[in-house]
Backbone:
């Protein structure tokens, strides 16, 4: 495609001590949710086959055969909770890039973070009040 190595850009995002973010507490629940989702999906496939067999044979379906559906739904809700953005990630987001991918466009929800970001990155940061979506 003719693309060379990409240039890595690093921006300093200052945070106070109350909102300092470390990822040591997010990796473990995410891994446990992914493993649990995989096991529950395998159990759900077997439950669907059992459910179809009972319907095909004309036998009644008891409540005990429906627990894998509830367990899979519970694990999906837990996965949504584990993978949601934390407070720090929710305070700003990357809106996009320019055409040449030279500039990164951020949106800050807190004006104090925006001002601190501009102070910490004086050579790399400018305020933009327009974005053209293509």
Residues:
């Amino acid at each position: 495609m003719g693309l060379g190595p990409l240039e890595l850009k690093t921006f300093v995002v200052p945070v106070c001590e109350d909102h300092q973010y470390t990822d040591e507490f997010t990796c473990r629940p995410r891994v446990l949710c992914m493993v649990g989702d995989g096991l529950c999906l395998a159990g759900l496939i077997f439950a669907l086959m059992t459910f179809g067999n009972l319907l095909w044979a004309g036998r009644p379906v008891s409540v005990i055969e429906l627990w894998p559906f509830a367990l899979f739904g519970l694990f999906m809700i837990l996965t949504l909770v584990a993978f949601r953005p934390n407070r720090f990630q929710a305070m700003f987001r990357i809106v996009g890039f320019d055409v040449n991918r030279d500039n990164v466009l951020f949106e800050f929800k807190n004006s104090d973070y925006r001002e601190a970001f501009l102070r910490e990155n004086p050579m790399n940061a400018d305020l933009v009040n327009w974005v053209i979506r293509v």
